Each structure stands twice: as structure tokens, then as C-alpha cells.
Amino acid sequence: MQATPEDGTFDKDKFNLNDAMMDVLVHNKYEFVRLFLECGIKLKDFIRSRLFELYDEVCITVKNSAP
């Protein structure tokens, strides 16, 4: 995910907020959720399209981190 090119400009077309939102939710980085919501993610649409994928990722993460 390349969001910042060499000239320092931000190309929002190359930055997928849905992928980033998935990553912060799976890795418990909730401090970023508000930022992504402010940047245009519609939580209802995100959950509708990614609920099963999110569930699978969280279950795998929890299973791998269990002692």
C-alpha cells in the first residue's frame, strides 16, 4: 500500500481505506478507527461487505496468540 510518493503528495486513489480499516480492526488499533471514519469510510457498508472476512481474521489472530 503506497500512500506517500517521493514528492510528498498523497494519492488517495492508491490508498484503500477499507483495507486499512480491516488491518486496524484485526490488530486492535482502535485509535485509528475514528480517523478512517472521518476520512470517508461508511461503517455500515464496510461491515456489510467485510463481516465474514473480519470474523475469520480475528479468529485466526486470537487462535495464533493463544498460549
Plain-language structure description:
The chain has 67 residues and is mainly alpha-helical. The chain has one domain. Helices cover 58% and strands 0% of the residues. The longest helix is centred in the C-terminal third of the chain and has 23 residues, at 43-65.
Strand and helix layout:
Elements: H1 17-26, H2 33-38, H3 43-65
Descriptive keywords:
mainly alpha; 3 helices; globular; 58% helix; 67 residues
Please mark out the parts with pLDDT under 50 across 5 or more consecutive residues, or reply none: 1-5
Shape: globular
Strand content: under 5%
Mean pLDDT: 76
| Radius of gyration (Å) | 14 Å
Percent helix, as a range, is: 55-70%
Going by helix content, strand content and strand pairing, the class is: mainly alpha
Total separate domains: 1
Termini, distance in Å?
Answer: 32 Å
Number of β-strand runs: 0
Q: Give the SSE string.
A: HHH
Total helices: the number is 3
- Specify the biggest β-sheet: none
What is this structure, in a nutshell?
With 67 residues, the chain is mainly α.
